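One such given next:

>
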Amino acid sequence: MGLKRLLMAAMLPVLIAGPVFAATCLRPEERQAVDAWALNSYLRVIGMQCKIDRTRMINAFQPHSGELSAAANVIQGYFRRAHSGAGQTRFDQYYTNISQDHAMDAIRAGSFFCSDAEVILQQVRALPPGQLAKFSVNQNIIQPIDAPDCGAGAAPQRNAAAPRR
């Protein structure tokens, strides 16, 4: 009888996590938004760590300001969908974590970070609007969201606590 209870107790988290896990998949527009936002965070760390002139940073961001604003809204929507009432808290944690991840990446890279970052900054300035997510993926920019894609045409499942619109 003890072994049966032990096995049941071990399986309980799997049974509970399944529906919650399914609710956190990323829709294509959400995946694109988190990838663009990762580059945004990385560029901000470049600005701080490499002491890049504010005007140069503004010039890099300016052509992409609409894309980044839309990405922020989409990401906040993802966190509301995936985490219901805790969505804002989870978004705030994500924002902090991604910044810390990029700062740690800068520390690990040492003196090479700013020389490499300068090249990335120049490339971002040359990107046409709408290309931040693709560039971020191609550059392998750290992205801490470890959620699966929802799949083409698949509607993501909701958890029971998620508000309906």
Notes: Residues 87-109 form the longest helix (23 residues). The CA atoms of residues 33 and 71 lie 4 Å apart. Confidence is low (pLDDT under 50) at residues 6-23, 154-165. The radius of gyration is 19 Å.
